[in-house]
Amino acid sequence: MKRCIAITTGGGDAPGLNAVIRAAALAAHRRGWEVLGVRRGYAGLLNTEETIPLTRDNIRGIAHQGGTILGTTNRGDPFAYCERGETTPRDRSDEVVKNFRQLGLDALLCVGGDGSMRIAHKLHQKGIPIVGIPKTIDNDLSGTAVTFGFDTAVKVASEALDSLHPTAEAHERVFVVEVMGRYAGWIALHAGVSGGADVILIPEIPVNVDAVCRKIQERERSGRHFSLVVAAEGARLDGATVTREEAKPGGVERLGGVAERLAERIAERTGKETRSLVLGHLQRGGNPTARDRIIATRFGAAAVRQVESGEFGVMVALDPPQVLTVPLAEASRMKTIPLDDDTVLTARDLGICLGDE
Amino acid sequence: MKRCIAITTGGGDAPGLNAVIRAAALAAHRRGWEVLGVRRGYAGLLNTEETIPLTRDNIRGIAHQGGTILGTTNRGDPFAYCERGETTPRDRSDEVVKNFRQLGLDALLCVGGDGSMRIAHKLHQKGIPIVGIPKTIDNDLSGTAVTFGFDTAVKVASEALDSLHPTAEAHERVFVVEVMGRYAGWIALHAGVSGGADVILIPEIPVNVDAVCRKIQERERSGRHFSLVVAAEGARLDGATVTREEAKPGGVERLGGVAERLAERIAERTGKETRSLVLGHLQRGGNPTARDRIIATRFGAAAVRQVESGEFGVMVALDPPQVLTVPLAEASRMKTIPLDDDTVLTARDLGICLGDE
Amino acid sequence: MKRCIAITTGGGDAPGLNAVIRAAALAAHRRGWEVLGVRRGYAGLLNTEETIPLTRDNIRGIAHQGGTILGTTNRGDPFAYCERGETTPRDRSDEVVKNFRQLGLDALLCVGGDGSMRIAHKLHQKGIPIVGIPKTIDNDLSGTAVTFGFDTAVKVASEALDSLHPTAEAHERVFVVEVMGRYAGWIALHAGVSGGADVILIPEIPVNVDAVCRKIQERERSGRHFSLVVAAEGARLDGATVTREEAKPGGVERLGGVAERLAERIAERTGKETRSLVLGHLQRGGNPTARDRIIATRFGAAAVRQVESGEFGVMVALDPPQVLTVPLAEASRMKTIPLDDDTVLTARDLGICLGDE
Amino acid sequence: MKRCIAITTGGGDAPGLNAVIRAAALAAHRRGWEVLGVRRGYAGLLNTEETIPLTRDNIRGIAHQGGTILGTTNRGDPFAYCERGETTPRDRSDEVVKNFRQLGLDALLCVGGDGSMRIAHKLHQKGIPIVGIPKTIDNDLSGTAVTFGFDTAVKVASEALDSLHPTAEAHERVFVVEVMGRYAGWIALHAGVSGGADVILIPEIPVNVDAVCRKIQERERSGRHFSLVVAAEGARLDGATVTREEAKPGGVERLGGVAERLAERIAERTGKETRSLVLGHLQRGGNPTARDRIIATRFGAAAVRQVESGEFGVMVALDPPQVLTVPLAEASRMKTIPLDDDTVLTARDLGICLGDE
Q1: Binding of Mg(2+): at which residues (chains A, B, C, D) (predicted)?
Q2: CA-to-CA distance for A30 and A7, rounded, in angstroms?
Q3: Does the beta-carbon distance from B290 to A194 stay under 8 Å?
Q4: ipTM, interface predicted TM-score of the complex
Q5: Among A198, A230, B152, B167, which residue's beta carbon has the most beta carbons within 10 A?
Q6: What is the DSSP string of B240-256?
Q7: Does domain C154-284+338-349 have CATH number 3.40.50.460?
């Protein structure tokens, strides 16, 4: 049966989005289906002109590129839509349903994080045949073992530590590197273990700055005159909750809070030259690793098979080595690091300070 | 209790060996234990002088380096030991047991592939308290979900495809790239899906060369005047078993069999300019990816915890997200790609030719 | 004055071609000119349909990609044109001139190696206003200090040596790596010095295989049980001229001659396990380095300025820090390595064997 | 004649320092000389115990590593020496001369930037036979065409732009990336041309923020809803001189001034979401590129040949393709970008905004 499906990408971009788009389009073409790309997340469905046909030609060579050819946005919730400049959100979800029908679509694939999956769930309840595809750089989505973007982010952060290591050592300095992770510290933990960090600070473990300084001084005494600290942006210093000016529309997001504050305190208490660095969007935009390309490609193909099966309201998920589905209703819980996680135990076994002792 | 443990690396080298060594040494030091490194695999235990103490200083900065600071060899089976130049193997395993005791060792960590795990099992039966750590670039070991080295090999092969893609397209050529995998095609499959191959040939699926040529000609007709073929070294052309001159001691190993023969036949049948390339040791020696460093580091630390637990004769293994152990007796079975593997299904969904249709 | 210029890329592809195309197109657009891309080298001018307008959109994001969006060919000499399947070349240069006029072109930019520059010179003599842009991976063109492609090739070869180093050391092997350079050994020399090779073999210095083996054995005696040899494909073993089956149209080019033969002889004479590897097209197709992108971009812009100046029959060239022009008549001489080149002296100072002592 | 030479590295570290050390040591060993490494710049000569013999073993495998095995410091001027905690600098240069003699040294190689070369000149005037080796990431040293470290810094910055490009485009944002360059904008200019920046801001051209915003808005109107701005840390917004809190001993250096302020103003005036990123030490510590390794290696070897020649008080310098020497007295002038530099012309030809129109 000839079908027409659409795909959209929402929330922050992650390396692998284009590989999902390409795989879904190829798998659909192979079944003789048409594929539309919806631009700028769900918001693109508020306007039937925001779609482009995804042909063999316009998905060429995109799998290894970062970003998303469809664009994305953090402001696309049709249940609480807020045009730039407006202040009162409106529920425009009925328009999405109407446009979905007017475009003659048989299914919608939506790629996104926890927010996007919640919206997908609500759209499914309003009758749209939807399949979710999980995306989160931070690896903080509970429904899937892992998803694309995370491996690339860990690679970037780990390579940054590799780069800073020799300059830290040559100048006998302390470096504090801030990585992504507001609520879950997966990137910090994995990059820190991979990149040989001396201290790893994650939101799951309240940070005792004294313990951090003790670790640095202990290294000093044993002849290691430098230290590398990696801190998730959501790490909580001395039990405080990080206050963070949130991005305002059209405004400048301030990153760098934790690293800068921690660096100041380390310098003050230990007397060591201390520098901070915020990796920020470098973790997000790069070309996906081979592993992320594969996961993204598998998800794109699996989502199309799911459409073929006729069962909607689910998200594809990785349960290695299988790809299976979980109900959208259950897909969007936060996955933080358990304190008995094997990589946490490994970090402690290596003598890495986790800020708590 | 003060203990002394030893660690050795056997078989072909894989990116991540040094990260295992470092992690095991740090985890042991943290418990106040001493650690010896045994040089050149089990063969190093035939001679008590082939050990070096692994101190904090000689494991510095090694985690991100390829190779192994302990050296390795493919000729170290103490149950069938064959000195260079000799032709009749001898069972020298008793000497290993004797030297193990003479060195005052409490446990032996051995890092290796299926061959090394079989030897470890036999040494354990002779009374050596041993913990195995799996290593295989090819990902063909059944006891563990995955192990270190594979991710790096896939990355290298995938990047090679990325490099060849534009030159293939500019010159309207076919490229055949030969990757590792004598019995299992994991590297070819994953690199091919990641790197956008048009044809992926693996040992698990007998290759119909006509089907391969049809795929190339079909692309030609649709305006794609180039193709990328990735072939595992063990791919069987037209049902034949690959005959391969094996490496002789001191001799020159001939690689490149499959790619070269396939390229000749493609050129002959399709009339397309066709080039072959054998990636060979480039897949093996590079710096480990962040992911491989993490797996290797977790294995090293887990093996030390296993020694602490007092249970031997097992291999550490990854069962995501956990690291657990499996009996050495069961650790060394070959893991080939099931034909319903999700990545195989994905490849077919993308229209990639797997050589069988 | 509104003009229309064309650009074409000929000969083997080199990283940076797309950056030249983009820069030339942008610089021409900025002057209000139109730009046509001619596909597949000069051969594209035998057929007015082989041109595509180069607009802002179809040159987007190409600067960092290998290959050439215009395609290329080694068989495009219009003075001795030989269609695939034909055996007698014909002079079709008059057609090129006719088509150039029919397309209403004001100038032709041709990017290519020594062969392309010779053709450019002859076309200029027939009245086509032409500006050459030098391209050679091998760095063997005399008219310019350096050109794009070379830096990328050296990087790829140097990184290959980095990858092979740890596996060579772990297994106590000799590796022979064959790199590009039929007549000039620039890639071998630079990659070898950068990548820590023990032996570097270039076409400019006849190779005494005994000297090579002595170096390997001397390292063996001093406790270095491995060696890295890098050989240009045109290196001459024991004074012989390399005979090499040349690529035949539609045929399979055999690479790997020198490395394989040398590896066999080293293994034979030294008894060391020796492996060979042919880098081949990996040196050619990858993404250009930042430096190659800059050189290529500068050349593309300079060629357009040259068109504006109205002086033709020249090739742009790098004379650091300037870009200037040289007459096409003088542009195509071969540049081999002088024996007193500073990098040669450096190699000798480091104790690297150059095959002659 | 048996000699003993020493080598020291001063100022900020740069990728390639270890390659210089290795090359100089190998070239000296080959002449039968002894080599001492002086730790922490000239300051190491205030204390004869701060030297280590550089043997074949402790320089193994260092050429491709960032940092410097000798350590470095920004506080080592013996003519105005200021111990940590002290506030009044003292002239301790006589101690350096005395220790140099007491160590029985025949020559000193000093690797450093303009400050180090000035000190070298003064030490030479006090009788120390000294050869300088230029080091500057910023490429702002006039005596040499280029030196090591710069190519790596450009690569890192160019790759950062590559990474930010897709995320900027996906989110329709402006990114401002701050790179090194207090007085000279070479890194910004080269990385910007290579990485496809839309705006490049350098200290040599006062920045008219209105011009920058016009460029961004002009792109917006033509359908490019994102822009990449690269700014040297010394770029002067609206004619102001950047005031910058200088690093205090033991304190935290604040980077990020220019990018953050510029991002705020762009957001304000254009209404575009704008993000800033400070690359900081990522440009400094990474592994040197192949090109930087070669330059560094050539400099190390050339410096030893210079010692052999017996002529001191000079700095080795690159005048492609030669390495020659310039008097130390003339070596330390600042090299800024001339406004008619070919890469500047190229940037303008591509339509890149340089902040002045």
Answers
A1: 114
A2: 16
A3: yes
A4: 0.94
A5: A230
A6: PPPP-PPP-TTSB----
A7: yes
